[in-house]
Amino acid sequence: MRARFCKYLSDLYAREVPLYKTLTSMVQKTNKQIIEKHPELGLNVRDIEVISAERHGAIRLGKPQELYVIAKIFRIMAMYPVDFYDLTKSGAKRQPVISTSFRPISLDEIEKSSFRMFVSLLQPDDRSFFTEDIGKEIKKNIAHRSFFSTKLQELIVQYENDGGFTEETTTVFIEEAAKIFTWSRQANNRKLYNYLMDNGLAIAADISCFNNPHLNHLTPNSLDISKLYEFMSQEIPDNLKDSIEGPPARNVRILLRQTSYKAVVEEVIFTDESGEKSKGSHKARFGEIEERGMAMTSKGKKLYENALKRYMENNDVSEFSVIPDNYTELYKQKLGYYIYAATSQTKDKGSLCCDIDELIANGDVILTPLRYEDFLPVSAAGIFASNLENYGVEKRVHAEVDYRKEQLEEIIGQQIYDSFDIYGSQSAQSLMNTYQQLGVWEQVTNKQEIQEKIKPIG
Ligand code: OOG
Ligand code: NI
Question: What are residue 60's DSSP bridge partners?
Fold first, then answer.
């Protein structure tokens, strides 16, 4: 269902934003070249459609109730909230939203479709962004909006009662759910809109002066963002951002690299309170691309974050060289997550030891890096800022609001998973399976430590 939904959204977005179509065909072209040039990736050109169909989307909501229902919808597609992102603190590019991402969790589900959605919730009560009056006006403006069709609400209840859908209801569900994210061209409260735009709060205008959360972007996955970026700067250089967010180009890909086009100008019709209509334009939606690499442990991610902090101060890209650029060293220093697997050629199982490093060195066990399935707060802030042409908001008052993950959990009515727990659990599970397969599990001395990492998730 998730794969079908992703495809449906992609077709819809292609009709709404012509640039997106061009972008996806460029992604497919470069992905094909990469697969052909790098057989060591183990990818098959025949799978090009599947590989190039990977997407993440981004939407922005205005009210807690909206997030509550959205979470139910994603839950039906086996997408769970993972990690909490507080964008109100991200330095110069801070935005008045807190976020999470809904994504599949198990490796099986990720393989079926890795489709994920970055979901942000506006904080109109945050006085470091909004005056009391404006906060009130925003809330009033969206108090009565509802973009969940009656049919969709019925289907959610039906799913929760029956625990599944028929083929037919699945199709209707996908159509009704996708309607939430369409571009309506209809805006309202031009006075509020203008105020927010003039005061560096474009995101609040994008959220609160429209009747539904249009899809902000739908990002195809690229196997080589540097190459794709080069291609894009030749083909459609206009409005392409002049840098790539995330770690610099390396041999071993880590975390997430992204870049985008600046937002396209779209025509809107404003309706004011008296019902009078006027023409205007809005700039928020854009084309983004990404490349995903290995998931980093908390130690590895800290190294990256500290390097990034220094890099942002001194613009010296060599700051990132503290992160080793080969798998052996990354493994040795426990900076990345891996899946362990027993190799088939191991015959004389009786003679095996249970020292994992030895097993790896002898070729009895192989490692495959786990891919990073989440987002990066600093990159996200950069993405918000550049597509809104809104590089940060001067603090109105200095009192910072303390946002916590629990707040979003309460709204969603469900736990927000920690991505380190997920990667750690998947890695530990594969390690245990491998030991068992090799028949050495009983001799393993740190059984408990491994078992403790395995968590029931999803
Ligand atoms: C979301 C920005 C975050 C990403 O890829 O980091 C994001 C937004 O613009 O609403 O999508
Ligand atoms: Ni994005």
Answer: 120
Protein residue with least CA distance to atom 4, ligand 1: 380
Task: Give pLDDT, residue 56.
Answer: 97
Give, for ligand 1, the residue of 67, 217, 419 to mutate: max count of ligand atoms closer than 8 Å to Cβ.
217
Is any ligand 1 atom within 6 A of the Cβ of residue 118?
Answer: yes
Predicted pLDDT of residue 394: 56
C-alpha to C-alpha distance for 413 and 308, rounded to whole angstroms? 34
- State the distance from the centre of ligand 1 to the C-alpha of 144, rounded, in angstroms: 26
198-248 per-position pLDDT tens digit: 999 999 999 999 999 999 999 999 999 999 999 999 998 888 888 899 999
Cα 374 to ligand 1 centre (Å):
11
CA distance 107 to 423: 10
Q: Is the pLDDT higher at 352 or at 308? A: 308
Cα 436 to middle of ligand 2, angstroms: 40
Cα(418) to centroid(ligand 2), Å: 19
Please name the residue whose Cα sits nearest to atom 3 of ligand 1. Answer: 380
CATH of domain 2-295+378-406: 3.10.180.80
Show me where the domains of the chain are located: 2-295+378-406, 296-334, 337-370+418-458
CB within 8 A of 232, min separation 6: which ones? 23, 26, 240, 289
Q: Is 93 in the pocket of ligand 1 (CB under 6 A)?
A: no
Reported as a pLDDT band with limits 50, 70 and 90, residue 133 is very high
Residue bearing tokens 């990354």: 330
Q: From the CB of 216, is ligand 1 less than 6 Å away?
A: yes
Confidence of residue 393 (pLDDT cuts 50, 70, 90): low
Alpha helices in 104-198 (DSSP H): 107-112, 132-142, 150-162, 167-179, 190-198
